[in-house]
Each structure stands twice: as structure tokens, then as C-alpha cells.
Design brief:
Layout: H1 9-49, H2 78-102, H3 111-126, E1 139-141, H4 147-156, H5 162-166, H6 200-217, E2 228-233, H7 240-243, H8 246-251, E3 257-263, H9 278-288, E4 292-296, H10 301-308, H11 313-320, H12 323-331, H13 334-340, H14 346-351, H15 357-361, H16 370-382, E5 388-393, H17 418-427, H18 434-437, H19 450-461, H20 481-486, E6 496-497, H21 499-512, E7 520-524, H22 535-540, E8 542-543, E9 563-564, E10 570-571, H23 576-587, H24 589-592, E11 598-604, H25 613-621, E12 627-631, H26 650-654, E13 660-663, H27 668-683, E14 690-694, E15 700-701, H28 710-715, E16 718-721, E17 730-736, H29 740-754, E18 757-763, H30 767-783, H31 793-798, E19 804-808, H32 813-817, E20 827-830, H33 841-847, H34 852-865, H35 871-880
Parallel strand pairs: 1-2, 2-3, 3-5, 4-5, 7-10, 7-11, 8-9, 11-12, 12-14, 13-14, 17-18, 17-19, 19-20
Antiparallel strand pairs: 6-15, 16-18
Helix pairs in contact: 2-3, 2-4, 2-19, 3-16, 6-23, 23-25, 29-34, 34-35
């Protein structure tokens, strides 16, 4: 009789394992997956309490998250959808090839859309909701480099003409063309969001999804089942903005958010993670952050092979191959794949013995399989309580064959020769004759063809075409706006206040306004108390999706930290990039959601333009409306903070943004005039502009508004205080902005009292507006030589003003120099070029040579240069004013 008792420890262990697995199978069958999850968690807790150190992993095996058994049936016609996708592929490729034949080096990208075609087509045919009558539509951030494919689909839909496709990347051709990437500024009826600056699409999508809930929770928008889709490249995840805010999405339970990451394993130069696995890395990151992760790695042909994998050898092999090797498999033959992948274990070779090398080569990946992609999208759309990320494995350049499929050079591939075009044509069954192939003609079936009929009906069922941008919101009336700001025109009558305090008071009044109060969106990155905004906590509350689940430590105080589901303030934490993403969402809501929200984003000015300038540029491209406010501004006005905090150049950076209107106001009435006009221009007149204002934390008296100065304030220059001195040895025109305008006023008194110089003082709230007006006039005059020349506004102001001209600001001298060419005489510019210092305002203004003494000496020096006074007068003034002529140059010290 045979002895069936275990012979050794290994057999005992195997027997125990089998018994545990059988027990687990029983629990799964009788109690279901939820019971299994609970049991495993309890076992894990028990093991840890018993001192067992369990290894941590955030990864699941390198297989599809949704098994073949759990996969839903695919709706619709696979065959027609395949033909539609093939036509889109051809036209996308033809668009790039034709553009580069017409103009060598014009660029364009074939490979990104080639890898992502299935990801997009499944969405277009089954998931992406348009903005129809019955729904608000989905919000989709298309991957920028995939733009040719999106254009090609719009061509099949009949929304773009062949002429438009012919002029891809040639927008200035007669009749217009198509922009290289998604740009709402250039195609305002088509694209909604700019995404090609890597990382900006994902972070904006996260904050857009949160802003949708904000609008709904505050009653500004009806609740909907709309989704925010963000299509992202796996190489793009190296950008900090891509992953930097993903915990916000899970913390806020943004189940309206879906990331689709196209894992083709390649970036521009080579593999994303040649020595690792980017899908597993991203799975761990997103699972650790609390996202629902769906992996779509293997196509349907792999299902039968995995069913044979009873001992797990195939799953083990899938998980141990690095991405660099997987990329190699994509470009090598089936024989190579058999030897190097399947040949690692005899059991694997046996598993595929019935398949030819050609069949092995054609085993598809999950991201190219519509059934697998559909299953993942359906699961993502139906999932609740978490955001979802889909990690879809694809091949970069899929379908372009020897021209670059799966190769490191594929991102730069712009041209295909005739043989490569013919092979692509044949592979995807495009009805283009051999003699026409070299021309890469566009192809669109007739309107009554099965393909066009099918895609038209699918888009009709889903609510309309995407992408599509339309502005249907009604303009605001703003009848009470002038009265709201009127109190700030009269000055503070001896009381001192900072422009930051003034702005906060204006904001509080706007929040109480009956017409626009509920539309105002205050945004602050954890600096509300710095800016004196804590009173707004109690007035309107801080937005939180769950309200306030705790009693704040300052509950007993008047200005306690109040969170509420209907709260109005977006308190973003120490996060300028996230705050600006919220600003973009709120500032473009007029087009995205049909709601005229008015965002006010206030932040440390130093951490704005230079820190998140790329997002500011994206805001401009998006046609965002609203107000950016650089708080604690000015190189010498922010005392004590030093080099990293003291801003003297944000206005120089803002000058480069074409539709950003910038001001450096000094007094309350200037801010009032600017805000009133800005709200009118953006929300009544519908202009695609936004505003940047710098506000300071220095307290001083707010002067009353000079009569008739409103339009001059907006243009950027007006006479604030004429000289009262009728007769004088010399004359000077002193121009200042921001906090330094007060130093200019002091210099006026010094010049008149001590040096017999009559000085007029001008306020220059915007050098940028003066600069733009000057160049606009020059351009018009240059192109209209036979007509009466236009005169720049700054010239109109200064052409009859007598004397030397000195311009001083708390910003780099380039700001003042920018208007020099339209002055009647050369100017002397004083500014804050150089690094800041940890010091008080008086010392800082001396260091940067922008205080009243240096302004006085500058005027005297120019008068001496013109022969009005002797040089000895200047020398004496330098000595009397305590200026060290040998002091170090602040610009380089």
C-alpha cells in the first residue's frame, strides 16, 4: 500500500498552501469578493499583531485589471468602428506628411495619435458626451501631440474641410489653417483647453473636476454626470505638475475625473523607463494616492494564453520583463519574441507551440483592443467615490511599420516615402489607388456611407460633437457697479491703509453685491491672513465638499476658520500651481459651464509670474477672464523677507502675455477704476482679456481721485500733482508707480523747497499699457504713410511738459525704459535691478537708489547735464543728502 503522507517540509508547505487556497475559493464562492477582501485584511492585521513583517506593495500583477470573465460585451459594430479608425489614422498621417512635403521642417506628430487611436475612438463612439440639450457634456483634455488625429476625425464628421487639413500648421494661409496643437486662442470654436505644454493638462483637469463640484455645491450649476477626461502620455508623468496634485483628486473623491495614460513606453529620445516598468510605477503612485487604477495591458488574444497559465509562469514572466525589452519586442520578428520572451521557460514555449511566429508578432496590446478599452472606460465611468486612472499599454507609432513603429526615432517622424505610404494604405484598407498614394490624399466617404452615418449617429446619441467650444452665457448687466466703487474715489482723509487692505475691502463689497456677489471666486494659496482676508472666512466660508467635520481651534473668535460645502473661497494651501489651475477653471467657466464666475487669485507676487508662468500663458491661451493679484509686491516694499520673496520683475514678465492687462496702482481710486473697468470689459463686453494687479502691504494715506483722471488711469499715465511753484531755476517731470510714487511726491517737495526746481508729479499705473499703445501707433503709422500719424498717448501727455524727466518704480528699470522712445526727451530710469535683501523699507530704498533722495539727485543731475544748473549743485546735494557715490551697484551686488 502506497504511503500518501507528506515526505518533506516542501510537500507539507505545498499542501498547506493548497488548503488555504481552497478555503479562499470557498469564501469567494459563498461570500463574494467583498468578504474575501475583508478576510484578507483581517488576516493581515492579525499577522502584524503577531509580529510578522509583511512586505509592502502597491502593485498588482502585470495583467489587465478587468479579467476576461468580467468584461462586458462590446456594443455597436466592431467592423464599422475599425474602418472609421483606419480612415482617421490615414487622414492624420496624410495631414502631417502633406504639410512637410509642402514646407520642409514644418513639423507635426504622427506617432502619438497612431498609438492612441483606439483610446480616442472608443471614447468618441461610446463615452465622450457633447453639450447637447439634455446634458452639460464631458470636459476633455486631449493630449496635445495627438491633435492630427482629432482634426482627422472632425474632417470625417464634416466639421473641418479638406482645405483646413491641407493647411495644417500653416494658419496664415488664405482661408486659414489648423494650429499645431490645441489652442483656444487660435481656434476658439474648436479647442477648449491648451494641453501641449507637458503636465498642464493633467493638473488643470484635476482642478477642473473639483471646480465642477464647487459650482454644483454652491447652486451655480445643476448636478450632472459629466466627466473630466485627461489624456496623458506616460513620459508626461515625469513633469511635476502631472502627478503633483493627484492626492487632491482622491481627497476630494473626484469620481468625475478619469485619467487615460497612454503607456507606449517612449518619450522623445528613448524609453520612459527602459530599466523598469512605467505601468507598475504609475500603478503604485496612483494606488498609493487613493485612485482607482485600471490596467489595460494585454489584448483579447492573450486571454486564452492566460487561461492556460495555471501555475502563474506567464504572469511571472510578464512582470519581470523591463520596458526596454518590451520595446524591443515591438520592433523585432515573431521568432525573436518566441526566443526571448517565451523561451525563458519551457512551459511558456509549450503554451504557444500552436502559434506561428507571425501570430506571435500579431498578439495585440490592450490599448489597441477596443473591447479591452471599452471595458475599462465603462468601469471608470461607473466607478464612484474615487478618481480613476487607466494605464493603457500601446506601441508608439502603431501602424506606420518600418517608418518608425515602436522605434526611438518615431516621435520625430514627419515623412513617409511612397512604399511606406503604400504599406500603411494596404494595412488599414484605405481606398486610395496606387498612382495616388504618393500624394497622400485625404479620404472621406460620402455622407450616406456606413462609416459617416454610423459616426454621425453615435455623436448625435452622445449629445453632439467634441471637441467644441461655444460661449452662450448672457453678459452681466453690472448696473450697480459704479456705485459699488464710488466710496474709494474720495481718499482716506488722513487715515493710512495699504493697497492690499483696500483691495480686500473691495472684494468684500463685491461678495455682498446682489448681481455678481455669488459669482465672485476668491482664490488664495494659504496666505489669507497675510493679506488680511480672514474676515472673509466668516462672511462667505471656505469651500469644502464635506463641510466642516471638526471644531476649529479658533472657534470662539470672531474670525474663525470656517469650512462649508457652500463656501465661496478656494483655499488651495501652499500651492500656486493648483491655485492658478483653479483660476483657469473659474476664469473659463463662461465657456465651459455657461457660468460667468469672476475669479480673484491673490498670492505673493514673487511666486506668481516667475513660478507658474507656463500656467499663466495657458490661462491666456484658454481665454481666461479674471484678476490675478500679486500681493506683498515690490522689491523694496516687502520689508525683511529678502531675496527670494521681494518681487521687482513680475511686471516685466507679465508684459510678454499678449492679453494680460497689468497695473501697479498706488491709491485706492486707481484700483477701483481698474477693477470696475476690468469687470465691465470681461463680463459685459465679453473681451478675452485678464488682469494682473500688484498690491502692497505698506500703509500710507490714500489720496482722493483727481477730477477727470479715470480714462488716463486706464491708459497708464496721468498728472497727479502739478507743481505749485510758478517761477523756478529749473523744471522737472517726475513719474512714479506703486509704492515708489510716494517717494516721488517727497522728491517733488525737496526739489521745490531746497533746490528751486519746479516739479510736476505723474502717476504711471501701467508701463505695459503705455508700451503697447506706443508700438500700436508706430505700427499704424508705418503701414499708413500717407495718413495723419497717430500720436502715442505717452507722447500726448509729455510733449508740452517742460524740464527733465525722471521715472522711478519698485521694479526693474526696463519697465521705465520701455516708454523712453516716445518721450520728448531722454529719461532717467530708476528701478530695482538686482537681488533683494533682508532689510526694512528705508534701507532697501536707499540700497536700490529709488528713495526721494536718489530721485532728487537724478533730476538735478539731468538739469546739470542740460546746463540749467552747475554740476557743483549736484555734488553738494549728494553730500547734503548723505548719499555715498562709491556705494556698490545694487544691480550686481
Amino acid at each position: 500500500m502506497r504511503n500518501t503522507a507528506p515526505k518533506d517540509a516542501a510537500e507539507i508547505e505545498a499542501l498547506e498552501t493548497r488548503e488555504w487556497l481552497e478555503s479562499l475559493d470557498y469564501v469567494l464562492k459563498s461570500g463574494g469578493p467583498v468578504r474575501v477582501s475583508r478576510l484578507l485584511r483581517e488576516l493581515s492585521d492579525h499577522a502584524r499583531q503577531s509580529g510578522v513583517k509583511l512586505p509592502f506593495t502597491a502593485n498588482t500583477p502585470y495583467i489587465n485589471t478587468i479579467s476576461a470573465d468580467d468584461q462586458p460585451p462590446f456594443p455597436g459594430s466592431r467592423e464599422i468602428e475599425r474602418r472609421i479608425k483606419s480612415l482617421v489614422r490615414w487622414n492624420a498621417l496624410a495631414m502631417v506628411v502633406k504639410a512637410n512635403k509642402a514646407e520642409d521642417g514644418i513639423g507635426g506628430h504622427i506617432s502619438t495619435y497612431a498609438s492612441a487611436a483606439t483610446l480616442y475612438e472608443v471614447g468618441f463612439n461610446h463615452f465622450f458626451k457633447g453639450k447637447g440639450d439634455d446634458n452639460d457634456g464631458d470636459i476633455i483634455y486631449f493630449q496635445g501631440h495627438a491633435a492630427p488625429g482629432i482634426y482627422a476625425r472632425a474632417f470625417l464628421e464634416g466639421r473641418l474641410s479638406a482645405d483646413k487639413l491641407e493647411n495644417f500648421r500653416r494658419e496664415l494661409k488664405s482661408g486659414g489653417g489648423l494650429s499645431s496643437y490645441p489652442h483656444p486662442w487660435l481656434m476658439p470654436d474648436f479647442w477648449e483647453f491648451p494641453t501641449v505644454s507637458m503636465g498642464l493638462g493633467p493638473i488643470c483637469a484635476i482642478y477642473q473636476a473639483r471646480f465642477m463640484h464647487y459650482l454644483e455645491d454652491r447652486g451655480l450649476k445643476k448636478h450632472s454626470n459629466s466627466k473630466v477626461w485627461a489624456f496623458v502620455g506616460d513620459g508626461e508623468t515625469d513633469e511635476p505638475e502631472t502627478l503633483g496634485a493627484i492626492t487632491l483628486a482622491s481627497r476630494e473623491k473626484l469620481d468625475n475625473l478619469i485619467f487615460v495614460i497612454n503607456c507606449n513606453l517612449q518619450r522623445l529620445d528613448g524609453p520612459v523607463r527602459g530599466n523598469g516598468q512605467i505601468i507598475q510605477e504609475l500603478e503604485a503612485i496612483f494606488r498609493g494616492a487613493g485612485w482607482n487604477v485600471l490596467k489595460v495591458i494585454w489584448g483579447s488574444e492573450w486571454d486564452a494564453l492566460q487561461a492556460k497559465d495555471t501555475d502563474g509562469v506567464l504572469v511571472k514572466r510578464m512582470g519581470e520583463v523591463v520596458d526596454g525589452e518590451y520595446q524591443k519586442y515591438a520592433v523585432e520578428s515573431g521568432a525573436y519574441v518566441r526566443q526571448h520572451f517565451w523561451g525563458a521557460d519551457p512551459r511558456l514555449l509549450e503554451m504557444v507551440a500552436h502559434l506561428s511566429d507571425e501570430q506571435l508578432k500579431k498578439l495585440t496590446l490592450g490599448g489597441h483592443d477596443p473591447a479591452k478599452v471599452y471595458a475599462a472606460y465603462k468601469a471608470a465611468v461607473e466607478h464612484t467615490g474615487q478618481p480613476t486612472v487607466i494605464l493603457a499599454r500601446t506601441i508608439k507609432g502603431y501602424g506606420i511599420g518600418e517608418a518608425g513603429e515602436g522605434k526611438n526615432i518615431t516621435h520625430q517622424q514627419k515623412k513617409l516615402n511612397e512604399d511606406e505610404l503604400r504599406a500603411f494604405r494596404t494595412r488599414f484598407g484605405i481606398p486610395v489607388a496606387d498612382e495616388e498614394v504618393s500624394k497622400a490624399p485625404f479620404y472621406r466617404p460620402s455622407d450616406n456611407s456606413p462609416e459617416v452615418t454610423y459616426l454621425t449617429e453615435r455623436r448625435k446619441q452622445l449629445g453632439g460633437y467634441v471637441p467644441s467650444r461655444s460661449v452662450q452665457v448672457e453678459p452681466l448687466k453690472l448696473e450697480g457697479l459704479p456705485d459699488l466703487f464710488k466710496e474709494f474715489h474720495g481718499g482716506s482723509e488722513g487715515r493710512k491703509a495699504s493697497t492690499t487692505m483696500v483691495f480686500v475691502r473691495m472684494l468684500a463689497k463685491l461678495l455682498r453685491d446682489k448681481e455678481i456677489g455669488e459669482l465672485v471666486v476668491p482664490i488664495v494659496p494659504d496666505e489669507a491672513r497675510t493679506f488680511g482676508m480672514e474676515a472673509l472666512f466668516r462672511q462667505v466660508g471656505i469651500y469644502s465638499r464635506v463641510g466642516q467635520l471638526y471644531d476649529p481651534v479658533d472657534m470662539d473668535t470672531l474670525l474663525y476658520y470656517k469650512e462649508a460645502k457652500e463656501g465661496q473661497i478656494l483655499e488651495e494651501g501652499i500651492n500656486e500651481a493648483g491655485s492658478l489651475s483653479s483660476f483657469i477653471a473659474a476664469g473659463s467657466a463662461y465657456a465651459t459651464h455657461g457660468v460667468n464666475t469672476i475669479p480673484f487669485f491673490i498670492y505673493y507676487s514673487m511666486f506668481g509670474m516667475q513660478r507658474v508662468g507656463d500656467l499663466v500663458w495657458a490661462a491666456a491661451d484658454t481665454r481666461t477672464r479674471g484678476f490675478l493679484l500679486g500681493g506683498t509686491a515690490g522689491r523694496t516694499t516687502l520689508a525683511g523677507e529678502g531675496l527670494q520673496h521681494q518681487d521687482g520683475h513680475s511686471h516685466l514678465l507679465s508684459l510678454a502675455v499678449p492679453n494680460l492687462i497689468s497695473y501697479d496702482p498706488t491709491f485706492a481710486y486707481e484700483i477701483a477704476v481698474i477693477l470696475e473697468d476690468g469687470i465691465r470689459r470681461m463680463y459685459k463686453d465679453g473681451e478675452s482679456v485678464f488682469y494682473y494687479l500688484t498690491v502692497m502691504n505698506e500703509n500710507y494715506e490714500m489720496l482722493p481721485m483727481p477730477e477727470g483722471s479715470r480714462e488716463s488711469i486706464l491708459k497708464g499715465l496721468y498728472k497727479l500733482r502739478p507743481s505749485s511753484k510758478k517761477k523756478a531755476k529749473g523744471r522737472a517731470q517726475l513719474i512714479g508707480s506703486g509704492a515708489i510714487l510716494n517717494e516721488v511726491l517727497k522728491a517733488q517737495q525737496m526739489l521745490e523747497k531746497d533746490y528751486d526746481v519746479a516739479a510736476d508729479v505723474w502717476s504711471a499705473p501701467s508701463f505695459q499699457e503705455l508700451y503697447r499703445d506706443g508700438h500700436a501707433c508706430e505700427r499704424w503709422n508705418r503701414l499708413h504713410p500717407g495718413e495723419t500719424p497717430k500720436v502715442p498717448y505717452v507722447t500726448q501727455c509729455m510733449e508740452k511738459a517742460e524740464g527733465v524727466i525722471v521715472v522711478a518704480s519698485d521694479y526693474v528699470k526696463a519697465m521705465a525704459d520701455s516708454i523712453d522712445r516716445w518721450m520728448p526727451r531722454r529719461i532717467t530710469s530708476l528701478g530695482t535691478d538686482g537681488f533683494g535683501r533682508s532689510e526694512g523699507r528705508t534701507s532697501l530704498r536707499e540700497f536700490f537708489e529709488v528713495d526721494a533722495r536718489f530721485i532728487t539727485v537724478a533730476a538735478l543731475g539731468d538739469l546739470a547735464r542740460d546746463g540749467v544748473i552747475e554740476a557743483s549743485v549736484v555734488q553738494k546735494a549728494i553730500k547734503d543728502l548723505g548719499i555715498n557715490p562709491e556705494k556698490s551697484n545694487p544691480a550686481v551686488s
